[in-house]
Specification:
By secondary structure, the chain is an alpha+beta fold. It contains 17 helices and twelve strands. The structure holds protoporphyrin IX containing FE.
Length: about 450
């Protein structure tokens, strides 16, 4: 007989809304410690079933993939793109977009990763906003995504676009947990959200116009335009296919990478031994090898540090699925239409799954690969058929950005320690007070 899921519903009407708003990571970890691998909680009007066992996570993300779908509420952000679609529409879009992340595209992107990091390093001293390391990394990853996805050179209005993307991200964080649905005219956030989407539509249009002029470029917009010429039926059904998917790739691909690098720079600033190992590796690598797609896989220490940062501070700290039919989830009865919350942050810091679970311990990655730790124990890019489509791109990008910086500079803490703030991605409440200092190592 199936077991019933332990419930922790909090206060009448609001459930756990107050601790959720105050510190949702702390709330999640405490409830996880109290209830173990599965529990149901209520935040405002929403009931969530939190799962924290690799077997259950595998069932949701892989074995019962067709039953556990994305809810429509991500449409406000992503429109009808790959990130919000389900079933046949998702399969069709995934199979059109997947080949775009081919090795030819990655190869062409490598040069941009290095050049755009270098040009931002040259402006480092003259831009006072770069005292927040996250602004510096956001500018680099934004320039990269702009160049590789829509073929535009460094955008003159970075601050405007960055503000629009933060607004969209904040509105997504807050919306689902309001106790009531506010009418549009009482909700100033709704107006800001519409303005932000307008800013993004303008920039994407600029990229599409540019792609039409320069058909040789391998930018994703260009490849998408060509691919859809052979699929007119798709454009008839989903006229926003290009706009929504380009927006999704920008939104999903820029902040995630800059957050990871920001947390990583903080971790290295606190750990001299590992910072030195990474510096030595960056110097040796750039002295002895031409950077290419293949030999980047030889990085040992830099990869260990990237994996350890993604374990401790996964930017996609939680995501949800809803089940169409009732099911048995590893012995627990799950009625139909439940929202299941999966949190890489929670699972990747669970003491029964990880030795030194809350500590920075990159040594673990010298002994085992991510796959050997288990695809459902370590899944910062998710896992299963819906695994992040930009995973290889992001890994290459982070490796090259780090080599380019660390061969000349080290990260030093210059103010308060960052404090985690779980919005759509894992921010820091007080920024990242990290500065770059030349290290003079050769
Ligand atoms: C460190 C960097 C990144 C991390 C940690 C990350 C993480 C994730 C996660 C956890 C998901 C699954 C979300 C869910 O199922 O609800 C996802 C999906 C996705 N990511 Fe990433 N991502 C990163 C970089 C990128 C980049 C660079 C791109 C594109 C250029 C990208 C594009 C996407 C897209 C389009 C999806 C939706 C895939 C689908 O539903 O089939 N991501 N990512």
């Amino acid at each position: 007989m199936s077991k019933s899921i332990p419930k922790d519903l909090g206060l009448p009407l609001i459930g756990h809304l107050l601790p959720y708003q105050k510190d949702r990571l702390k709330m999640l970890v405490e409830l996880g410690q109290k209830h173990g691998e599965i529990f149901e909680l209520k935040v405002g009007p929403r009931h969530l079933v939190v799962i924290n066992s690799p077997e259950m996570i595998k069932q949701v993300l892989q074995t019962e993939f067709d039953n556990f779908v994305k809810r429509n509420n991500t449409k406000d952000i992503f429109g009808d793109s790959l990130a919000s679609a389900n079933a046949e529409s998702w399969k069709e879009q995934r199979s059109m977009l997947q080949p775009l992340f081919s090795s030819a595209f990655l190869k062409e992107s490598l040069v941009h990763f290095e050049n755009l990091t270098q040009s931002n390093l040259e402006n480092y001293d003259s831009n006072p906003n770069f005292s927040n390391m996250n602004v510096f990394f956001s500018k680099i990853t934004f320039d990269i995504i702009l160049k590789c996805i829509i073929g535009l050179n460094s955008y003159h209005q970075f601050e405007k676009v960055d503000k629009a993307l933060v607004e969209i991200s904040n509105s997504a964080t807050n919306k689902n947990y309001l106790p009531v649905n506010m009418p549009k005219f009482l909700n100033p956030g709704q107006k800001r959200l519409e303005n932000s989407h307008f800013v993004m539509r303008e920039i994407i249009k600029e990229g599409i116009d540019l792609a039409k002029e320069n058909e040789d470029s391998l930018s994703l917009v260009n490849v998408l335009i060509k691919a859809t010429k052979n699929a007119p039926e798709l454009l008839r059904r989903n006229k926003n296919f290009i706009n929504d998917n380009v927006f999704t790739l920008i939104f999903a691909g820029y902040e995630t990478t800059s957050q990871t690098l920001s947390w990583l720079s903080y971790l290295l600033s606190q750990n001299k031994k590992w910072q030195n190992l990474c510096i030595e590796e960056a110097i040796n690598f750039s002295n002895s090898k031409e950077i290419n797609h293949e030999n980047l896989k030889d990085l040992k220490y830099i990869d260990a540090v990237i994996n350890e940062s993604l374990r401790l501070y996964p930017p996609g700290w939680a995501f949800t699925r809803a089940n169409i039919k009732e099911t048995d989830l590893c012995g627990y009865h799950l009625k139909a239409d439940q929202t299941v919350l999966i949190s890489p942050f929670l699972t990747q810091r669970t003491s029964t799954l990880w030795e030194k679970h809350d500590s920075f311990y990159p040594e673990r990655w010298l002994e085992k690969t991510p796959a050997q730790f288990g695809r459902y124990n370590f899944f910062p890019f998710s896992s299963g058929p819906r695994v992040c489509i930009g995973m290889q791109f992001a890994m290459m990008e982070m490796r090259i950005i780090l080599i380019t910086i660390l061969k000349n500079y080290k990260f030093t803490l210059d103010g308060h320690h960052p404090i985690m703030d779980a919005r759509v991605t894992l921010f820091s409440k007080n920024g990242f007070n990290i500065k770059l200092e030349e290290h003079n190592q050769k």
